[in-house]
Batch of 2 targets.
Target 1
Amino acid sequence: MIKTLRASRESFHPLFWWLWALSLLVILLVSDSTLISISISIGAVALVLMKRSNTYWYQSFRWSLRLATLAFALRMAIGVIIGVPMPGQVLFTIPSIKLPDLFVGIRLGGDVTSQRLSTAFDEATLLVALILIFAAASALSNPHELLRVLPRKYYGIGLATVIASSVAPQSARSIERVRAARRLRGESSTGIVSLRKVGTPVLEESLERSIDLAASLESRGYGYFPNPSRYRPHNWRPRETVALAAPIYALIFLFLVPAASSALLAGLVVIAVITPGFIS
Amino acid sequence: MITFSSVSLIYPNAQRTIVEDISFTVNEGELLLLIGHTGAGKSSLLKLINGLIPHHTGGILTGEISVAGRSTRALKPGELADVVGIVGQNPVNGFVSDIVEDEIAFGLESLGIAPEIMRKRVEEVLDLLALAPLRRRNISELSGGEQQRVAIAAALVTNPKVLLLDEPTSALDPIAAEEVLSILHRLVHDLGLTVILAEHRLERVIGFVDRIILIHGDGSVDLGPARQILTSSPIAPPLVELAKKLELGEIPLSIREFRKIAPEISEAPTKAIEKLNGDAILTINSVSASYDQDQSSKALEDVNIQINGGEIVALMGRNGAGKTTLLKCAVAQAPLTKGEVRVNQRDPKSFTDKELIRFVGYIPQDAGDLLYGQSIKQECDLADLDNEVEPGTTLAVYQELMKIPSLNSHPRDISEGQRLGLALSIILSAQPALVILDEPTRGLDYEAKKVLIKILKQIASSLDRAVLISTHDVELVAEVADRVIFLADGEVIADGSSREVLKASPAFAPQVSKALPNNSWLSLSDVERCLSEKN
């Protein structure tokens, strides 16, 4: 009897992090609460820090954090400047621009009320939480491992998913290299111009890499044979179930005890989010 | 094993056919070498054999190609996976797993091989390519040569009858290249594997091959025994060029064959030409550096180097010896833990970006990283702006360096050599005192290399400028470098004139010096100079 190999101890099932992200997404959307958004964001960042690794997909998390900050700032700015007038206590006033009659009811600048500020804040934190959930999932799972567990019958879909989920982390790696090269040209433009100049080679490279990957899969017969076998099967073990159960319990709790104190809820969600960090 | 019958290939919207009406047969157990200038269609021909062209890449194919009796027209590359294995130019892009063993098993998994057989096959291939000690390692931490071996193992694991390799040694140091080639040689001889490989550096592979396919670039190809093709081929390794130059009448394929027929050549005692050197341009004083911000991994240890004006210095050493980190010191992009770096008596850290390019011109490993314009014209205009020089300067420099392609072509579409030329002109138009090139000859054919050599010599002809190159290309070093610095494990282990350093090392000696060990020559141009002095 030949023993079957086991997947390495430290890594979770390739689908695990995406299911984990999905369950958090449900909590986020069902609860629709700023407190939960903040708890999830904090939990996600804490978890990623707990599972520190040297891989390129992990390294991409720094860029996701920047993206989340940028999204937060943008959403806040837009929320404060543009929108329909809202009631509430006026906190401060910014100069307003009169829009043509076509945009009736929309204003640019003007009074900033407490209500406007809190709505903008709520939506901005929701956005941040959304970004961080996906950032954490992609920082913690090897995008290529997905290929082995996705059904090979749908070759195209599997490949597309893998390329989509690996472009961001791999690009993060290229960006650093291209930016270093940019400095070698005495290039010091910032903002949109520099974005394009860094973006062009990075996108071209990721396109090239994706084509190479597809060619490699194709030449190795991926998706052509009906019953692929597994060298080192990724089993769904009890630990995956336990780690995934935590956010699901949190969700059930949210439904059953709607009147629970917010501090309790927030604590519960943070614990649910970081549970996988304690299981290895 | 492989039969081409009147095969033609053209890409839609292309000006010329890649191959036109070619027919040939490759036998089982042959090691075939594919040569031709960059862009002649070597990669295309390889991809035709496993059906990636036309199924994956596109292209219009006429004629019939059959591999082990199966037609590539009817079958997709995946359906040929059990008879053809292919290793692309950048094997890293094709890796699916992060662990060596899992990567190798991937092909078997796809074919649905039973786990028990799979384990046996994986073990066999691990042994075959001497990868057993690395089996649980992370692929991204391996050296270039090790990665290349993993890619070959992953292609071989399904027991294919044909193995296709696209420039397998271009990223490797001479010793790693030798290792990969001798493994291929063994596979061909022991297992009857058919191997077709495309390669620019003929000097590395010529001793191993049976026949050569020469792609002319006008659609025609020549296939014949190595000796016969090399007699008339415009592309030939230094050894063959040397034999032709000395009018030996025979074409030697190995150093041993050459020595058998080589005459004793008396060398007129060369007048010792003391090369004048200028002032120090780059000084590196007891520098240590780490790979990352985290200080644990040592990349350089207590390195002392001085480079003077008028010098061309080559930096050599194994993959991962710290060459790139050393180069990066000069542009303040390496995390130093100790020591100091001076460029023209100043710390590169104190330069602003605009100042830096006036002192150091740096071409990174992938010259394309420097380029972001949509056309050559735009690229040159941007460079004039960045370098704050008269409009048109960069283009003028480019035109002086080489025959340039159409101004409207996209920098990604031009050949490797032309792209390197473009990157060089961008750097040179700022007139830096120090020009640094990291692995400039990757993917360059002999012709492009000759142009590069001319350019580098021209730069160093001025006493206030110097060139520093890191390279695995021994023949380039022999032609161009005055001095060689050898790095091993982050430490300088040799620093001396090219003649002393190269001649002393069996692995790094160029072909000319191996072929004529009693003479002091390193390169063809040394021999030429001497012969012309005699006459």
Target 2
Amino acid sequence: MGSIRVENVVKRFGKVEALKGVRLQVQDQEFLVLLGPSGCGKTTLLRIVAGLETPTQGEVYIGERRVTHLPPRLRGIAMVFQNYAIFPHLTVYENVAFGLRMKRRPEAAIRQKVREVAALLRIEELLERYPAQLSGGQRQRVAVARALAVEPEVLLMDEPLSNLDALLRLEMRAELKRLLKETRTTTLYVTHDQVEAMSLADRIAVMRQGEIVQLGTPTEIYHHPADTFVGGFIGNPPMNFLPVVAEGGQVVLDGLRLPSPAERGPLLLGIRAEDLEVFPEPVEGGFAARVLVVEPLGPHLQLTLEREGTTFRALADPGFAAAPGATLYLRPKEGRVRFFHPETGKAL
Amino acid sequence: MRVWPWLLALAFTLWVLLPIYLIALSAFSPREAVYAWPKAFLPGSLSLETLRFFFGVEGVWRATATSLVVAGLTVAFSLLLGAPAGYALARFPFPGRDAFRVLLILTRAFPIVVLALPLAVLFLRVGLYDTPLGVALVHTALTLPFAVLVSASLFLSIPKELEEAAWTLGCTRTQAFVKVVLPLALPGLAATAIFAFITSWNEVFAASVLTLQNKTLTAYLLTLLDESPLPFKFAGGFFLVVPALVFLFLVRRYLFTLWGISHR
Amino acid sequence: MNTRYLPYLLILPSVLFLLLFFGWPVLSAFLLAFREGEGWGLGQFRRMAQDLYFQDALRNTLLLTAVIVPLQVALALGMALLLPRLGGGRDLFLYFWTIPLGISDLAAGIVWLAIFTERGYLNSLLHALGLLDTPTGWLTYEHPTALFLSVVAAEVWRATPLVLLILVAGLQLIPKELIEAAEVFGATPWVRFWRITLPLLKPSLQVALILRTVLAFEVFAVVVALGGRNLPVLAGEAYFWYADYQNPGVAAAYAVLILGISLAATFLYLKALRVREEVYG
């Protein structure tokens, strides 16, 4: 069983509290992504699961075993590092075979297993080479092959794609997805790239300042962010937040009337750029805004607009005629508006 | 490109190499050429006579052997004591690390003269006087701070992730060190070893003060300086220089790690 | 993994070793030097100071240091600044110029003995130029200045490469952009050297000066190889008192004196060339 359970893990570095009591459960065969800005504690959490750091408090379970104080080699894990950490003095073959040799597998079994994962990662041609003779993408494949060769209960990946150039990253991303579906290995994956997280994850845990702020499927997280931080962090462009005031259980923005979760008082209205329909003329259920910037991005036109001192973004068809200074009218799509508390930022 | 930097560079090179050429010339000249007047600057008749005479002198071979033993022990001590400490400096941010660094750097302000004399007195008492082991211990005191600092910078240049990867793949700390860190650090450690070897091979003062019968080559030559004829000195000088040339060739990649960087 | 004690375990052997072979001897040298019969006193120092060779040894050592060290720094600085102008030849020249690094002081003394001795290469050259008729011994008591200069030549030759290496390493740390920026603003090479390169090189210069000065105070084998005891120096006297006169007390007094001036010089350099943190800011 390759599940991971993290219970109330606290990690302090001196006075800095990197993790503030994290709980997390990764199901067997699940691909879970830890997503967050740099310094949020996601890598620390991964390293604690790996056994490379010891938690100040709390427990880690892999399968049903408590592994909190076990060294990495006894945890049944494998890890892919951000800089790949391929052993430069060993051939690709020996790199992939390294973990198997440590397990004292018979030579024939090692040879077979190395061939197998090499085929899986399409690096059969490279087995006799040294890492210095490999490109970045090839090293990446070797690192993944080396980790999969030991058939770990749990695969840990620390920003494995961040050192690749943009094109290669797309390719490897798709490849990883295929691979991990095939091998059905439980995976805990750290990244700061929300697109990567969305594309790969079964579930995403969004982290911020040492805490998990939201845990859910990519769709849930995208459409129902738990707070303004998640909404702003996920999606490109980020979610728009417009300050509004509720009165009599209703929010009114020009022609737009929405039932409000609060009877009265200030609120934040959250809406994604692609969920705003853009009209050149006043429209029923729409509100007005002034165009600041027009950016033709290819598949659509990205508009930066301003209303009552707040800037926000909307997407229009590429052929839409808009000029800076013009006034446009925007109407949210049905059911896509979210409300947040203006101070705490929590979803209402 | 202008010519004068090259001329200047060639002049410097000549300044460095000419004396070495001249000592080699003296060492390979027959005896009468050593006393000739005026001397020829080009090799007239090369001969091994002078060198043969040098090695024929009683005690030279023995002193050479002693020098090798002392240098070998110095290398072993420096690495065995220095590499672990260097590893600690490179990998752990432990309290007291800076104090340890300062201690290492501080040792440079203390002349070997100060170390050698009291240790001679101590060694007389504990039976280490006039032994290769005793000399090697003092030489290790000279090389150890370098060995620690150099190996620290070596280990620092090996990414920690390589070791962590080895741990996750089933290695204990020791196994990871032996299988991953050591092979990668080996060339640098070899350079450190050569450095320790040559420091010991070259050292005169402590070796002279700490020995009586079992002198190292440098110490032995020093005692013979007064009474020995010029050809003997020149052959000896040349014989002392040769390892230096080999040594510099072997460690040229690590020049800055061994001296430049480890001095900050 | 519990690694809290591991680093201490790893440094323990070398700490113990250094305490035993640095801490103890330094302490013990003081005890030895200040021992007088059954009690304590300056007797050893008095004997040292009254010795015939003492004043010469002290003067020669200080004078040698005062001449050698600046010469080495100047030469090394010139060589270090020359290197970048040599394009692809840089590494080769650096290799040649650092060859004396591995040569011992005794060997260096003998090498230069071949040049300065009576029938040596220098005299042969002077003869060829018609400046000298018969072999003349420069390395004798009658020619103290010539002997002094020979020692200077040998020491400068032997130990300049060490300074060179430290300065080259220091120069590599200076961001190129700084010098290029100065060039853009119209600074002449001379101004760039004095206002940018030299101040930024201060930390390296400090290291080189301390190291070379301490080593120059210990100068011994070069002098003995070239002139025996014709040019007395402090470390040489320590050796002779210990080995020839069998008097460790006076020898220790010399050692303590060398340590004293070494520490004083180090302190002076640290004060005079104070390296401010913002230099690298």
